[in-house]
Each structure stands twice: as structure tokens, then as C-alpha cells.
Specification:
The protein is of the alpha+beta class. The chain has helices spanning about 15-30, 80-90, and strands at about 5-15, 35-45, 50-60, 70-75, 95, 100, 105-110, 115-120. Strands 1, 2, 3, 4, 5, 6, 7 and 8 form an eight-stranded mixed β-sheet that branches. The longest helix has 12 residues, at about 15-30. It comes from Solimonas marina.
């Protein structure tokens, strides 16, 4: 079974998300949008567009709980439910609820250091 097949997003906790987003916009040129993040479109080795994106976002980190880390990484997976079942069987701390939306299916597991890891199965064709 494939496990992680890509990085779907990187999320940063900030005391002042707007100010931190402005810093990244000004100094690193990240096109931070009004929702607090940016979308990086994937490309192949020749620079041509490829199917996929990676989201980068700054926020208050409320959705990182129970982790206290200042970040959360979202990993793209092909079979979320199968992977969560496998992780449970391997003794990993899988958080109970998976969520489904128009953006795909999301699930979470805690790593041994207490970091919440988000797993994302994009919608079919995305």
C-alpha cells in the first residue's frame, strides 16, 4: 500500500497571523491571500504544470490540538481509510474522526513527539 504520496500543505501557528503573513509576503515573496495562505501549483521537471497543489498557511493553530507544536504538515495520501486502519494496527495514535468535504477526506495521527499529522485524500481527479 502506498502511504504518503506528497505534501498537501504546511500550516504555521502565529500570535499575529496577519503580521506574520505580511512578513512572508514582503520578505519571501509568498503571495499570501486574504484567507491567510498561498497555493503553490505543482510542476514537472520541465516546469510544465502538473496535477496538484501545496497549501501554505498562517493561522491561530486552533486546529492543531491536541498538539502544542507551532506547525502542522498535511500529507497527501491515496487511500486515507486504508492507511488509518494500517496505522491503528501498527499501534499509532490515530485520532477518531475523519472528515469529508468537497476538498477531500482528512484524518489525523499523532507522531511520537506529540505533533498532529494531517493526512489528506484529495477528491477523485484532483
Amino acid at each position: 500500500m502506498n502511504r504518503v504520496i506528497g505534501v498537501g500543505g504546511i500550516f504555521l501557528r502565529a500570535r499575529d497571523p496577519a503580521a506574520l503573513g505580511a512578513w512572508y509576503r514582503r520578505h519571501l515573496g509568498i503571495d499570501v491571500q486574504s484567507w491567510g495562505g498561498a497555493v503553490f501549483r505543482w510542476g514537472d521537471g520541465a516546469g510544465d504544470p502538473a496535477n496538484g497543489t501545496t497549501v501554505w498557511s498562517v493561522g491561530d493553530g486552533g486546529n492543531f490540538a491536541p498538539s502544542t507544536a507551532p506547525f502542522m504538515v498535511n500529507y497527501r495520501v491515496a487511500d486515507l481509510h486504508g492507511l488509518l486502519e494500517l496505522l491503528r494496527a501498527e499501534g499509532c495514535e490515530v485520532l477518531d474522526a475523519a472528515e469529508e468535504s468537497e476538498f477531500g477526506i482528512f484524518g489525523w495521527v499523532m507522531d511520537p513527539e506529540g505533533n498532529k499529522v494531517e493526512l489528506w485524500q484529495p477528491p477523485t481527479g484532483a
